[in-house]
Design goal:
The complex is a heterodimer of chains A (426) and B (427).
Chain A: E1 5-10, E2 13-19, E3 25-35, H1 41-50, H2 61-70, E4 75-83, E5 86-96, H3 106-119, H4 130-146, H5 151-163, H6 176-181, H7 185-198, E6 200-207, H8 214-221, E7 247-253, E8 258-265, H9 274-287, H10 292-300, E9 304-312, E10 317-324, H11 329-345, H12 350-367, H13 371-384, H14 390-398, H15 402-411, E11 413-422
Parallel strand pairs in A: 2-6, 7-11
Antiparallel strand pairs in A: 1-2, 3-5, 3-6, 4-5, 8-10, 8-11, 9-10
Helix pairs in contact in A: 1-7, 3-8, 9-12, 9-15, 10-11, 11-15, 12-14
Chain B: E1 2-6, E2 16-21, E3 26-31, E4 38-44, E5 52-55, E6 58-61, H1 66-73, H2 83-89, E7 93-98, E8 103-109, H3 113-125, H4 131-149, H5 152-164, H6 178-183, H7 186-196, E9 202-208, H8 212-221, E10 235-236, E11 249-254, E12 260-266, H9 275-289, H10 294-301, E13 309-316, E14 319-327, H11 331-343, H12 352-369, H13 373-385, H14 390-398, H15 402-408, E15 417-424
Parallel strand pairs in B: 3-9, 11-15
Antiparallel strand pairs in B: 1-2, 2-3, 4-8, 4-9, 5-6, 5-10, 7-8, 12-14, 12-15, 13-14
Helix pairs in contact in B: 1-7, 3-8, 9-15
């Protein structure tokens, strides 16, 4: 990161400030990190809804929406994401820069509003209300149901559920709606109190902060009772899986399209230099329009519209996806296997390798322009020792050899194939 | 020969340089040196609704989905190379999309910008089509159509628009149907290309970090490339319609997980509806059906809708309709309730507080849209395609008054309302 990035410690809360004139908006992200506890992770996920149901000034969602509209279309969202074995409960408010509107305290007001959402109920300024919590539970249950309509996400979740049983991986659990229906206010309060009293707290602020006394505003508004952040990191010692036989699953649905997923295991540790090999290999295989999958499965054999690969680096996983006609499923699987096999046997030419390095580096440079990506990058650095210096990242990518690429594809193991079969076209 | 000037941003702190080339190509430059990338969008005023037109008193009709088909095939260059591959080799990320009224070819990159621009202009200006690759592309587009057909909301919208519009091509799918794309051949592609891919119909917006002089050199190479144009004088037939709908309601069985509803109110486009009316309608929809409205809260509390909900205005020069979409456990009751709200709209009161709030929201949403160069570029071109300046649009919006909103209430008419309900298919 460059000089525009600074960290402060205010009331035991790590504050990360990214001051940049690139943006007309200010993005404020407050993250509470704890180790994932499967017994309560659904409640922590629920908190991202329950805490947003009312604040000290707003009695319900409608009033919150009105408050945000009045704050020049400010947007707020809360999510619970897993970062390896770490649960990251995140609260984000995005506002326009106050220099573009008459409210010259918009920054301070947005900080106050965000903090009220997170801490208001702990400080007794407002409380969890049963009717509002029940409404949120209903929303969560609906969302879980509707999430099955996104076939790519749904299929992937089903595959991971089967492939990674007993591994701590953030996926939608389609049975969680039963747990939510049984939730009580008492349980919610207990988990919320646990979170506030035990989580590591990081506050990220990104935007053009010229003329705003950020430190002063934070000193005046951040809670003074938070405990010191622990120096904990994501667990990177998740053991490698020994794959003896490729598992095959399928589910038949009333779809036109069949969604094909192939799940691979690799032994690449998140904080090792091999991560750059993995990123490059994903680019070669299916990260771009010029990648093998797109060129061969789509352009050469015309088997699909959508085909790509992606990695879950913290879980040592790589996936391939293709949306196909059911009658072509075997043919597509064979072609994909052959693509991976070829990459494991034939070294790429320097030209081919450099092409993908260029593409990958370009996308990394472009991501530097994204306010949110910058915040995520710092978080990954704090909890996962991810490289933060873009020049070093580029050097690492440039140093990957074609032999290393070949070795990567030789070492990855196909663990499972999943077909969410659409048979309406038959 | 070219004319340089700056776009009027109505006092807003943005500098967009405008140059019209002698062949009619419109070029816009928005420089932001503090970011890494450069984003380029070459827009062609040719979308899915451009299916019928008249040239020299002769009427032509194109197959449904042809604009989208050209968007797919134009990347294949004369020498058989794929332009997206060449752009990749230069380090750029490229893409394209077709809407009802335009086709856009885009790339973003942090290096080799002028080389990338050259590739982009080359393939758009020199489209060539081969029958064998057109035929194989049909399988890919067919998969794309299947992908959308699996989304219940897409299917519902298709039926709703078909029930609302008699002739306007907005009722057709952007990608066409599996049947219509089968009919598309090389001759038709070439004819459509030669008709619409005329620099007069092109707008090139370049934003971010770039060297303008270098790019102008590339652009000037294409100043004389106009020889393939069939005719500049195309009369597009849009079939503007009054508010009359074709069919009031429909029920479908789709593969969703819970019942859904889609409701539309058609706005009479045969009468003079101006941009002020459009903006007033947008604000009114937010006040009456937005997520901060009393109606939204009531419908949610009665469990007639869920948070998976949207209310918005869809419009272009030839069509305009309000759309309301939601999941609903009781869709029939929900529709009744919404119709009741519409029939009693004259009783709806807008307080000064409400009005200030939505004006603040409007200012904020405008600033948000200027934050990323991709957003400002695409949005600017979308408005330009409707012969409108994005900043002028906002200037008009700033001057909207409460009475304009009351006036726009006349468009909420039950007679022009149609709806579609969908229920999950039994497995």
């Amino acid at each position: 990161m460059n000089k525009s990035y600074q960290t402060l410690l205010i009331n035991n809360i790590r504050v990360h400030i990214i001051n940049s004139k690139k943006y007309k908006t200010t993005c404020i992200s407050y993250r509470l990190s704890t180790f994932i506890d499967p017994k309560i992770s659904h409640i922590i996920m629920g908190l991202s809804y329950f805490l947003l149901s009312n604040t000290s000034e707003c009695q319900n969602r409608k009033e919150i929406n009105r408050y945000l509209e009045n704050m020049y279309d400010s947007k707020i969202h809360c999510t619970m994401n897993a970062f390896g074995n770490i649960s990251n409960c995140e609260f984000v408010i995005k506002t326009i820069n106050q220099k573009y509107c008459p409210d010259k305290n918009l920054f301070e007001n947005s900080i106050k509003f965000l903090l009220d959402i997170i801490f208001g109920k702990y400080e007794g300024k407002n409380e969890f209300k049963e009717d509002l919590v029940n409404r949120e539970i209903e929303s969560i249950v609906n969302e879980i149901k509707v999430s099955k309509e996104n076939k790519t996400e749904y299929g992937l979740s089903l595959l991971i559920n089967k492939m990674c049983k007993n591994e701590n991986i953030d996926i939608i659990n389609f049975n969680n709606h039963l747990k939510f229906k049984k939730l009580t206010i008492k349980e919610i309060k207990e988990v919320y109190t646990y979170l506030i009293e035990n989580a590591n707290m990081d506050l990220f602020i990104s935007g053009d902060l010229e003329g705003i006394n950020v430190e002063e505003i934070l000193k005046n508004n951040l809670p003074k009772y938070t405990k010191a952040n622990e120096k904990f990191k994501v667990d990177l010692n998740n053991s490698n899986k020994n794959i003896k036989k490729v598992k095959y699953y399928e589910k038949i649905e009333n779809n036109n399209q069949t969604h094909l997923f192939l799940g691979y295991r690799n032994n690449i540790s998140y904080n090792s230099k091999d991560i750059y090999i993995q990123n490059l290999c994903n680019a070669i295989l299916g990260g771009f329009m010029n990648s093998r999958l797109f060129r061969i499965v789509r352009e050469k054999y015309n088997l699909c519209y959508s085909v790509f690969s992606f990695i879950r680096p913290l879980n040592k996983l790589m996936f391939i996806y293709a949306g196909i006609d059911d009658k072509n499923k075997d043919k597509t699987i064979n072609i994909i296997k052959k693509i991976v096999d070829d990459l494991s046997k034939r070294k790429l030419t320097e030209n081919e390798l450099n092409l993908f390095k260029k593409l990958l580096i370009n996308s990394i440079k472009e991501s530097e322009d994204s306010q949110y990506n910058q915040i995520d990058k710092i978080y990954s650095h704090i909890y996962g020792d991810a490289e933060i210096d873009i020049n070093k990242t580029i050097d690492h990518i440039n140093s990957v050899t074609s032999l290393e690429v070949k070795e990567y594809f030789k070492n990855i193991k196909l663990d499972a194939i999943f077909l969410l079969r659409g048979v309406l076209n038959e | 020969m070219s004319n340089n000037k700056y776009i009027n941003t109505y006092g807003f702190d943005e500098k967009i340089e405008f140059i019209e080339r002698k062949n009619g190509l419109k070029v816009y430059f928005l420089k932001r040196d503090n970011i890494n990338k450069c984003y380029v969008n070459l827009k062609v005023k040719f979308g899915s609704i451009d299916q019928e037109f008249i040239i020299d008193n002769k009427k032509y009709t194109l197959n449904e989905g042809i604009a989208h088909f050209i968007e797919h095939k134009i990347f294949e260059m004369k020498d058989g190379k794929d332009a997206s591959v060449i752009l990749s080799e230069l380090g750029a990320d490229s893409n394209a999309f077709t809407t009802n009224t335009l086709t856009s070819y885009i790339f973003s990159t942090t290096e080799n910008i002028k080389e990338c621009l050259d590739v982009l202009m080359n393939f758009v200006y020199n489209g060539t089509f081969k029958q064998n690759t057109i035929d194989s592309e049909k399988d890919i587009i067919s998969q794309e159509i299947s992908m959308y057909a699996d989304e219940p909301e897409v299917e519902m919208l298709k039926v709703l628009l078909d029930n609302m519009y008699q002739k306007n091509f907005v009722k057709n799918d952007i990608g066409g149907t599996k049947e219509s794309i089968k009919l598309i051949n090389k001759e038709e592609m070439e004819f459509a290309y030669k008709t619409f891919y005329n620099p007069c119909n092109f707008s090139l917006f370049i934003s971010g970090n770039f060297n303008k002089e270098e790019l102008l050199e590339v652009i000037s190479k294409y100043d004389d490339r106009k020889n393939y144009v069939l005719n500049d004088n195309i009369l597009r037939i849009y079939h503007e319609e009054n508010g009359k709908i074709i069919n009031k309601k429909d029920e479908l069985e789709l593969n969703g997980t819970i019942p859904k509803l889609a409701l539309g109110i058609k706005i009479d486009k045969t009468k003079e509806i101006n941009i002020k009316d459009i903006i007033s309608l947008k604000l009114l929809i937010r006040l009456i059906f937005g997520e901060s409205s009393d109606n939204f809260e009531t419908l949610l509390n009665k469990k007639l809708i869920t948070e998976n909900y949207a209310a918005y205005l869809a419009y272009d020069n030839s069509y305009c309709h309000l759309l309301l979409e939601s999941d609903s456990k009781k869709p029939i009751l929900c529709i009744k309730e919404i119709i009741n709200i519409i029939n009693n709209i004259k009783d709806f009161k807008i307080t000064d507080k409400d009005f200030t709030r939505i004006k603040n929201q409007l200012l904020g949403s405008f600033i948000f849209s200027l934050n990323k160069i991709e957003d400002i570029t695409d949005r600017f071109l979308k408005y330009e395609n409707q012969n409108m300046n994005l900043f002028e649009y906002f200037d008009i919006a700033k001057n909207i008054e409460i009475n304009d909103l009351y006036n726009a209430m006349k468009y909420f008419n039950e007679k022009n309302l149609s709806y579609v309900l969908s229920f999950p298919k039994k497995v």
